[in-house]
Design a protein that fits this description.
With about 160 residues, the chain is an alpha+beta fold. The protein has five helices and six strands. It is globular, with a radius of gyration of 15 Å.
């Protein structure tokens, strides 16, 4: 059973286009900063490689660019005030640095995009939950996704991006 789970994880990881990260958490491609134009809903993964071991963090977003900025901002202020966010993931980024992580898109999720549509966010979270249940990524503290209204999340994302 454990061997099957490891094979499933390896199969998933092999199918992903990976991007390296610079020390500030920006995506790199061929040693130059790559600006993503992937403003599509998706399930994404950060992979931390330590020797022969890989640790994963799986998440979902309606907008990849905003989500990357959120993660970068939360790492930046983590030591000051954040305790309610995924402390394991952010603690590992602080300890090992962004350059030991890679980033990839597991799956794009197609639906008619409407930021006001709560059903789109729920659908995305259901798909994320399937990945969390299947792979049990170590860097995810919460193994069950929670739904929060997207308007609040969008406003927070915009405010966080402006602070960077």
């Amino acid at each position: 059973m454990i061997i099957d789970m490891l094979n499933n994880i390896n199969d998933m990881l092999n199918d992903i286009k990976w991007y390296n990260l610079d020390k500030k958490g920006f995506l790199m491609d061929n040693n130059s900063i790559r600006i993503l134009l992937l403003k599509k809903p998706c399930i994404y993964v950060y992979k931390l490689t330590l020797g022969n071991e890989n640790e994963l963090y799986i998440g979902s977003t309606l907008n990849v660019v905003q989500r990357i900025y959120q993660h970068r901002y939360r790492v930046k202020i983590r030591t000051k005030e954040l305790t309610m966010y995924n402390t394991r993931f952010y603690s590992y980024v602080i300890k090992h640095g962004w350059t030991n992580f890679t980033f990839g898109i597991i799956q794009y999720v197609d639906f008619e995009f409407d930021i006001k549509s709560q059903s789109n966010r729920k659908k995305l979270l259901q798909i994320e939950q399937e990945y969390l249940s299947k792979y049990s990524p170590f860097l995810n503290v919460n193994r069950a996704v929670r739904f929060t209204p997207t308007r609040k999340n969008k406003l927070n994302s915009v405010a966080l991006a402006k602070k960077l």
